[in-house]
Amino acid sequence: MSAPRLGIARPLLAWYDGAKRDLPWRRAPSPYKTLVSELMLQQTTVATVVPYFERFLARFPDVAALAAANEDDVTAAWSGLGYYRRARHLHAAARAVVERHGGALPADEETLRALPGLGPYTAAAVASIAFGARTFALDGNGARVTARLFGVRASIDRPATREALRARGLAEVPAARAGDFNQAVMELGATVCAPRAPGCAACPLARKCVAHAAGEAARLPVRSPRRGKRLVRVACFALVDGAGRVLLVRRQAGLLAGTWALPTVELEEDAPGEDAARGVVRELGVTAGRLVARGEVRHIFTHRDVTAEVFRAQAAARRVRDGQGARRWLAPDAFATVGISTFTRKALRLALD
Ligand code: SF4
After folding, report:
1. Tens of pLDDT along 172-224?
2. Domain with 316 in it
3. Which of 29, 114, 126, 350 has the fewest Cβ atoms within 10 Å of its own Cβ atom?
4. What total of structural domains would you count in the chain?
């Protein structure tokens, strides 16, 4: 893919100067704000992230405050934003910055890459936006925009295509304003070069864009065929004590690791949820009253479509057998103090209503 530069920096930056949105991480920017916003924005829209970002910054105003926080406080502040691994990565990165770099985020892309949870995209984004490094940060959004701009017909899901797009994107990055260039590509992808209906008529790069010239903008980028979502059935069990507190367990693994959830078990095909819920009660070693079926909740994750049968029972005694992982009884008005996923919130609502 040895092709000439398109020379997009000048029109792109001129457009960005007039069109960029006023976002909280762009006001009085700092490396810490850049890091938090970049992690929050992965797989999540700007509109969703803004209130979370503002609350998170109010709670953890700098790297030192985040590093000193406990895991529950961090996951609580992230609750509802999904992809909880990002919260754990951010927390671990803040601790590493304090331990290894005296509390100051390193400016160098390679050193940023060595922080826990920072992949090539995040390290490049922070290095360029916060420190002006001449690098190109390529995420899914940038891959779509550059595949169209350069007219690339190979699948953007292939690592070789991504690497080629990154190299061609890097060739376009100006020595000055590298951070603005990267943000401008992201902004263009979010507001003009949209996934389904690219707004070529309003695009500052229309005269440079290979896909637009070829009339292929809406057909690019090419994606590899995806496997469908896995259908999963689970049973969740709300055990409630005499004071209305609910037994929650901390998830140890998977997408929701670190969050607090109802005891949950995956169901074999066609297995009755009630039997499984009884099994959970036995495993917990609790004495519980009659099991009441409360109905079902459904939640779509990236790769899974989960239907949960929700059960509730009164606990006769609060003693719970020791097992793997943390367990705690929590009153509903304390749910906001720990990290609870949207999926668990739905199940709790159904169980407790
Ligand atoms: Fe995207 Fe169209 Fe602009 Fe090309 S001209 S970058 S396809 S919006």
Report:
1. 999 999 999 999 999 999 999 999 899 999 999 999 999 999 999 999 999 98
2. 230-352
3. 114
4. 2
Rounded-to-integer distance, Cα 308 and Cα 237, Å: 10
Q: Is residue 299 included in any domain, yes or no?
A: yes
Rounded Cα distance between 151 and 169, Å, is 13
Same domain, yes or no, for 198 and 299? no
299 Cβ inside 6 Å of ligand 1:
no
Tens digits of residue pLDDT in 33-52? 999 999 999 888 899 999 99
Residue % of the chain over a pLDDT of 90: 63
Q: Is the CB of 206 under 6 A from ligand 1?
A: yes
Q: Is 304 in the same domain as 198?
A: no
Residue with structure tokens 């995209």? Answer: 121
Nearest-angstrom CA–CA distance, 66 and 313: 38
Single-letter code of the amino acid located at 279: G
In a domain, 56, yes or no: yes
Residue of minimum CA distance from atom 2 in ligand 1: 200
- Of 219, 246, 271, the residue at which a domain comes to its end is 219
What is the signed CA dihedral for 325, 290, 292, 257, rounded to 10 degrees? 0
